[in-house]
Predict the 3D structure of the following.
Amino acid sequence: MRRKFSLLPILVIAILFFSLNAYFISGLGVIYKSIWLKTSLWIIISGLTLLLIYAIGTVQRKGVTKLFQVVAHAFLIVFVSELIFAVFLLIGDIYRVLLSVPTQFEAGGYHTLNRSNDWIGFAFVMFCLTIILFAYGITKGKYAYRVIRHTLYFDDLPEQFDGFTLTQISDVHAGSFTNPKAVQKGIDLINAQKSDLFVFTGDLVNNMSNEIVPYIGHFSQIKAPYGQFSVLGNHDYGDYVKWPGEAEKIKNLNQLKAYHQELGFKLLLDEHVELHKNGEKIILAGIENWGIGFGERGDLNKALQGTAQNDFKILLSHDPSHWDAQVKNYPSKIQLSLAGHTHGMQFGIEAFGIKWSPVKYRYKHWAGVKSENGRYLNVNRGFGFLGFSGRIGIWPEVTVIELKKKI
């Protein structure tokens, strides 16, 4: 049965958007008094809102279309930019009202100070900068791959693995790519690290296995002396698309597993392998997706069956919520866990000592290395992108981790 399309949430958003736009125009009108400008802005906003409502309606019939992507991104850019302007305008309005209060006693009446042209001009500059940031994030930022390096020290690392390196990527989301040449630059960056081991921590596609087909030639270039290993993420199971029947969904998943093999990735499904070097070994384990709110499929006990308490273990688990729920206190010590999933929400700031993204309100550990109970977790910010076709401040990541024995 087709889900019934409800206009109510869209109408609520539209009302909020129109209210925001009215406040925006009221501020902009102080420095730009042209009636034609105000009229043009209202026409643009009205047209964009109606177009968005229409585009959302088409999604119900045809799925996500190019029209929807373009209109939704345009709406997002305008909304966020106006919101930034409105925040600064509101600060100025509150300030001038507070300064106006004493005039009740001085002049026997209430007099409100006029809005400052300089302050509104500053707010407009922030509005323009926001648009520029979004434009960069959509055109360049989503392919602006960064290498982030970590050196981690362990008491119990086998001596032969002192200096062992691994490269991790996560969340490819191949169905979102539109620029094969840019993706190839990311692949070249991965191979340039010349790590001993390569791991991929899930979400190869958005929904359907065939999304990776145009990029098999790219990702199959990735090679490492100790192999290439992978796990599945929540998007890989096809849970977010409607299938004709369960058989088609299972077929899609099986085909995706076959594509992992075609890429040269050894897919770890609640299992582990031993990596040997000069008579010593470490354990590399991988589980099916286990994430609070995103399906708890993985079986950690099964993945580590046959391993010893004192084995040095690295775990691939897509969702970082698994680390908090099970891994960091697991009876058999797992020295290092590697995850992804969050994308850093593809939006935030990591500069000048600040590390912030809205995703922090959903995930305790959302990017980078965390240590608790003598165990490490690294959360990769993702190689690809999903939903918002861009990245702002949280760039696509290639992680390189060096294992060192603590002296």
Q: What stands out?
A: Residues 71 and 299 are 42 Å apart (CA to CA).
